Amino acid sequence: MGPGFVAADEWHSGGMVTRVAVVGGGITGLSAAWELVGSRSAAEGPELAVTVLEGSPVVGGKLRLDTVAGSLLDVGAESVLARRPEAMTLIAELGLGDRTVHPAPVSASVISRGRRWPLPKATLMGVPSDLDSVRGLLTDAEVSRLAAEALTPPIHGDVAVGAFVEDRLGAAVTDKLVEPLLAGVYAGHARHLSLEMSVPALHGAAREGRSLLETARAAAAAAADGPAAGTPVFASLRGGLGSLPSVLRSLLADRGAEVLTGRAVRQVRRTSSEYLVTSGPTTEQVERPFDAVVLATPAAPAARLLRGAAPAAAALLATVESASMAIITLALDGPVDALAGSSGFLVPPTEPLTIKASTFSSVKWPWLRERDPDRTFLRASMGRHREEATLQQSDEALVGIALRDLATVVGALPAPVGAHVQRWGGGLPQYAVGHRELVARARAALPPGLVVGGAAYDGVGIPACIGSGRAAARAVLTRLPGHRARLRG
Ligand SMILES: Cc1cc2nc3c(=O)[nH]c(=O)nc-3n(C[C@H](O)[C@H](O)[C@H](O)COP(=O)(O)OP(=O)(O)OC[C@H]3O[C@@H](n4cnc5c(N)ncnc54)[C@H](O)[C@@H]3O)c2cc1C
Questions:
Q1: What is the domain-level CATH number for residue 126?
Q2: Residues enclosing ligand 1, CB less than 6 A?
């Protein structure tokens, strides 16, 4: 336990301690708590008592392991962007650096006109830096249209990614490149998603009326010459990324934070001096006072919880939609030749398949092949924004659809020896046009001592969520007016 930090049971010590509730124990909430317990010192500010309140029985949110054919595997998020600092820094701080792993150097593909084509390298979310890399995947006519970029005047504000790229480079670039890449991140539709939030580099070009192709080329050249050139783009942990939350939970407990699971927060009320947080099952609800609250849940529960304390912010967050999806993990016996040499494929929505992507996990992750050499694991994802009907079927039906689509792409596979369906209802927030402004307005409408962070706000990827959680932790203390003075005085 660091200086300046006290155990949660010392709260009664007469108001000398700042009590912070972190609502939601996904990677955002856990990172917020980690920042709170780790970064304060007596010289810096008040003593803190931190309580994480997680509604489900386990921490981690979308980082989750489960058993498939007797083996523990990721059934949610499986990797982090290693070229952003937040996740790698956290992994190092948790002492997990020696468990860091990277994908095998095999490439993925994209389906077009029923065939697999190499996923073009060095694109800016699908906008190619090299026209030759998209030949075949796009027809000759589509490549010609792309090459003749139709420059448009500078835009003001935000626009939808898909429509903008289509105007500049033709519909095929949106449909066959941008859509599958964006769907992999948001399970959304390029023609609804915000350019400003989802591809900031292209938004910069749009605002200045610059060429998207030249922007993609410049980004590829900068990446090739930059300090990160040649380093792996993605990372994970031996044993699965889903093993990180339990490590974080236990280190938080070692540092005196209270991490409670099965304690869904039902209400956050603001009085003149504190927040009253009601949590727990309906039959055992507990109300506890806190000086500050970090709300690290998805947008819909955040909107419900903010209704009383910040109705204007609640109304804004209630408009953030989300996409539901499912991950179907399959275990096959022995190595499977049909999957060799590829990490998987993406499926544009224009193709007549239900799955939107598949990852050949045992090929992509050498640690998995080493641990379970007699099994081949692969997974398929299903579900796009506003297309929930696909998921309203039994687990068996979803497994059947995944197998049928996989057979269409890679040829017949042996019958699985195990299958697992993980449903992620409302799992991915949709950043509609104007999202950044909506978030700024919602944050501006929050009272002091109440902050929000997580996938709904600053980026859905894990590094962005870690950054968002840590920033929320820092912000919640600075937004407590007079608090430091009171504690010091
Ligand atoms: C299937 C899938 C695969 C993904 N793969 C990747 C990937 O490989 N790499 C990557 O970078 N990103 C990936 N993402 C995105 C990323 O994993 C998530 O955006 C991120 O983990 C969200 O973290 P979070 O803590 O903000 O939210 P969550 O993980 O949703 O955590 C929020 C927590 O709040 C809890 N909660 C909700 N309401 C309440 C309440 N009222 N009281 C108390 N607790 C509550 C929930 O139970 C949950 O544990 C993936 C997302 C999905 C759905």
A1: 1.10.3110.10
A2: 23-29, 53-56, 61-63, 76-80, 264-265, 296-298, 301, 325, 327, 424, 427-428, 454-455, 460-462, 465
